[in-house]
Design goal:
heterodimer; A: 431 residues; alpha/beta; Rossmann fold; GMP Synthetase, Chain A, domain 3; 2 domains; nine-stranded mixed sheet; four-stranded antiparallel sheet; 25% strand; globular; B: 143 residues; alpha+beta; VC0802-like; Alpha-Beta Plaits; six-stranded antiparallel sheet
Amino acid sequence: MIWDRIETLPREEMEILQLERLKAVVLRVYRKVPFYRGRLRESGLKPPDIRSLADLQNLPFTVKEDLRENYPYGLFAVPLERLVRIHASSGTTGLPTVVGYTKKDLRTWSELVGRVVVQAGVKPRDVVQICFSYGLFTGGFGLHYGLERVGATVVPASAGNTQRQLRLIQDFNTTVLVSTPTYALYIAEVAREIGLDPSKLGLRLGLFGSEPWSEGIRDGLEAAFGFKATDNYGMSELIGPGVAGECRMQNGLHISEDHFLPEIIDPETGEQLPPGAEGELVITTLTKEGLPLIRYRTRDLTALDYAPCPCGRTTVRMHRVSGRTDDMLIIRGVNVFPSQVEEVLMEIDGVSPHYRIIVDRRDYLDEFEVQVELAADYFTGAFRDLETLERTIKERLQSIIQITAKVKLVEYRSLERTAGKAKRVIDKRIM
Amino acid sequence: MWVRQISIFLENKSGRLAAVTRLLADHGFNIRALSIADTSDFGILRLIVNEPARAYQVLKDAGFTVSETEVLAVEVPDRPGGLAGVLDLLNSAGTNIEYLYAFVSKSAENALVLLKVENLEKAVEVLTANGVTVPDYRVVHQI
């Protein structure tokens, strides 16, 4: 089933619609957002200069830093009184990225999540259990309203308490599971521990997102639960979940390109790349009122496929995200940048500028270890000084990145020195 | 002058301790006493060697994280209650002991113990006043 006829629009008609909306959004940000007015003037452009979709590539990019520098509301295109919801995600240096929604934005959001869940196979008769946390994070609320919009029965179980999740699945006859892929793996494991066969729980579909995952994990999930596991894509800056999702073909994620105009660029040069080439996904929001973004650099690496899909949709498909152009890590669902760790370490006496981050996954939980060299001249020979140092690092990290890190002091000059870019992060998690 | 102890910061990974002892052996140092304190991640190796100043430099040049600390060597009667008597004296004088370890001594009747205390002068004063022998640093480093 296809939720909205617009998903099958012929390419020419889609492009006409995109151009019309692109012109409108450029005009709107030029008028309403001083940041964008400044940016456009700097590049010598005026809204009427956008005459075709090809002119998009003349527009300046927007990056996550821009959101941070205009924290919290600086990039909003409407006055606060027109906003009805605020969400936020963690930022690079402690400041979160704040997003705001008007009433119309929330309606759009529900519609777009509706498309994603319908193309994954959700029906009005389904009972859908959402195991995302409800809060500033967009995952929980985004899926919630989209699923209600298509008439599914929503169980807002939120995250955690796995035994209770299993009880709800059984008692409420849950048929669809919404969670991160790793949490679903954990649910399957806990089920087996208490003597339940995950494939006999009655689940027929899983909707997964908010962290990178591989075909291998998909196979594992489908084998464990005996259901279809589908991928969806989004990010809070753009709207949250609902930007793109897989259809039953499971061959790429259809982007709702009547709302999100995608491009692939070379992350080094910023040049637009031809269809099919792998590069960084850049999105221009075409309809958002609260926080419209022009050429937002997602930092996610993917490729676009404009070939027709057997499912009947004509919207472009993006490949599964293969990596990131920056070094952002997702630890237990929290965005962490090595630069945040570095900043914390640089402020502490007793450690050298050399450090290494080791990420691993044990019992489905991410472990985050920071190894740091003891400064050559700091060592006093006393045990408690080292313990105090470890504790200080741990506490500062906790307050900045909001996750508990294991801190390990290592010998001076024991970490690799390279002439080029240092290998700061070792991610042992199997994706 | 006091007995000079060398402390070395070591990660808990195989071969690190052997690397230190090999290096010292190659440079002809004799290890007079040693102790290791460790957590699951790192340890501190404490050494008393002949020629502490040169050993410190050799270790530093080899890239080890080292520091030097002044400690006290005390002769303890080699019989039950020998150590207890010494510690009682220090305790009653209010001298706090951070750590202690024993010497590889050849002397028959007395054992030699190394003490890290906050106030060295005060500790020596209390001990000698009560008939405890506190050997000279030269004796400790070179016997």
